[in-house]
Design goal:
The chain is an alpha+beta fold and 164 residues long. It has one domain. Helices cover 40% and strands 24% of the residues. The protein has 6 helices and 5 strands. It has a 5-stranded antiparallel β-sheet with strand order 2-1-5-4-3, sandwiched between helices. A hairpin with a 4-residue loop joins β3 and β4. The longest helix is centred in the first third of the chain and has 15 residues. It is globular.
């Protein structure tokens, strides 16, 4: 288990075909640097069409193999998969229901796979996993609840003092 950043995105139209072709090429000839570059580029361009769905979150407990599976492309920093809408729905069905994190992943996959067929003939769902550290323990979470982190404290600023 690991703390990981999870990204689920849907790309439509000609871009979907290009992404599917990229992933097929990586299955035949792995290119970790290109996988990392693709993932970085996608994350930097989430507001650009034809990215029609994008969601990213931190997951502190899920197993990585539950996320992108054996068909994924392996980078040095990222692990990614390109799924058809049917494959995304099937993966959502296999996520499990024991933990909230499994339910969240399943919901995001279903969101990404749903509804784009009325707008685009072709679309793909891209799932990206980036491991950022070890899993967080419940004790670490409980300990963190007893303090205000420095980044939040500095965000509050100083209250203005008024003199008459």
């Amino acid at each position: 288990m690991a703390t990981q950043r999870l990204t689920v995105a849907t790309l439509a139209g000609d871009a979907a075909a290009a992404v599917a072709a990229l992933f097929e090429s990586w299955r035949l000839d792995p290119d970790p640097a290109a996988v990392d570059q693709f993932c970085t580029n996608l994350r930097e361009n989430v507001m650009s069409l034809p990215v029609v769905y994008f969601c990213e979150w931190v997951d502190r407990w899920l197993m990585g193999d539950q996320i992108v599976g054996a068909d994924g492309a392996e980078g040095r920093q990222y692990h990614a998969a390109c799924l058809s809408p049917k494959q995304a729905e099937a993966l959502a069905g296999r996520c499990g229901n024991q933990f909230q994190e499994q339910q969240w992943l399943a919901a995001r996959l279903r969101e990404a796979a749903a509804g784009w067929g009325t707008v685009a003939e072709r679309y793909v769902v891209v799932v990206i996993r980036q491991v950022v550290g070890p899993s967080t323990t419940d004790d670490e979470v409980k300990l963190s609840l007893k303090s205000v982190p420095a980044w939040l404290d500095s965000s509050r600023g100083r209250p203005e003092t008024r003199t008459s």
